[in-house]
Amino acid sequence: MSDLPKKGICDRCNATLKKPSGYLVWNPMSELTSNQPVGAMMICNTCAKIIFMRARAWTMTKELLTRWMYAQNLLFNTLYGKGVDMSDPEEFGKFTSLLDGVHMSGIIQRLRKRGLDKEEAMKWARELGELWWSKPKKAEKKVSKEKFFSSWK
Q1: Cα-Cα-Cα-Cα dihedral sign, residues 19, 14, 75, 57
Q2: Domain span at residue 20?
C-alpha cells in the first residue's frame, strides 16, 4: 500500500484538497508559542489567490517583524490575563486576523527573497504543490531551502 497522500487539507482554511490541487508554500514565521517556523503549508486555490494577490503584503519589509512581535506580545499578555479577551468574538476575530496577516506576509516575504513576483510565486508554489502529491518529502525539502531572516529587503 502506498504512503502517498490521496487528499489533503488546506493549512489556512481547512478546505479539502484533492489530488493534484494545492499550492505548497513555506511559512518562515514561528508559532507564537515556540521558536520553530510553521514550515511547509499546503494551501487551496482560494487561499493562494488571497495570499499571492494582496498588493500591500508584497511591499512590506520590516513592518512584518514589528507586526509579528506585536502579535507575540499580545498572545503573551493574553495568556496571563492582560491581553485579548478570547471569549469576546470581536476581539478574538481581530487577533486571529492579525496573526493571519503576519503569516501571509511571512510567506510572501520568503517568496520575494527568492526574487519572485506575484505571478511567478504562484506558479512556483503550484508546481511544488503538484510535486507534493507524488514526492512529499522532496517537495517540502525544495520549498524550505533558504534561510529567511538572514536579510530583509
Answers
A1: positive
A2: 7-143
